[in-house]
Amino acid sequence: MTFIKEFKHFLAQGNVINLAVAVIIGAAFGSIVSSLVDDIITPLLLTPALHAANVNDIASLSWGAVKYGSFLSAVIKFIIISIILFALIKTMKTFLKNETETTAKLSISEEALIEIRDLLKSKN
Question: Is pLDDT larger for residue 45 or for residue 48?
Fold first, then answer.
């Protein structure tokens, strides 16, 4: 088998594609969760605590301000990555489907049914 044929066979295995998608989506979703905690939840929880502790210069603290823009940026990146992955996987599956349709072999039961059909036709 040539390298390209082996590579196509390797990619045609569903486990490889599923694992790659899971790793990429997991990393992108991890950035959303990190941004949610670091940029929104933590500042919202710490601001009342800082006021209670009489810390007057909250703006000078980098973790004292809610950063909605940073969180929105992480969400947009996730959506873009998801759309690109969807298009890539859809294209790959179409390519691999066309490839397997041209090289598909009949199963044993299909071959037996064809032989039976041919025998019945020859008797008539």
Answer: 45
Rounded Cα distance between 95 and 29, Å, is 28
Q: What is the pLDDT of residues 54-104, one digit of tens each?
A: 666 555 555 567 888 999 999 999 999 999 999 988 888 787 776 655 555
Contact between 66 and 42 under an 8 Å Cβ cutoff? The reply is no
Copy the structure tokens of residue 51.
Answer: 């006021």
CA dihedral 28, 29, 35, 41 (to 10 degrees): 180
The answer to whether residues 62 and 108 touch, using CB atoms and an 8 Å cutoff, is no
Q: What is the C-alpha separation between 24 and 30, in angstroms, rounded?
A: 10
Query: What's the burial of 74, exposed, middle or buried (CB within 10 Å: 0-12/13-18/19+)?
Result: buried
- Is residue 91 within 8 A of residue 83, CB to CB? The reply is no
Q: Which amino acid, residue 7?
A: F
Rounded to whole angstroms, the Cα distance separating 112 from 106 reads 10
Query: Amino acid letter at 20?
Result: A
Residues in the chain: 124
- Burial level of 35, CB count in 10 A (0-12/13-18/19+)? buried
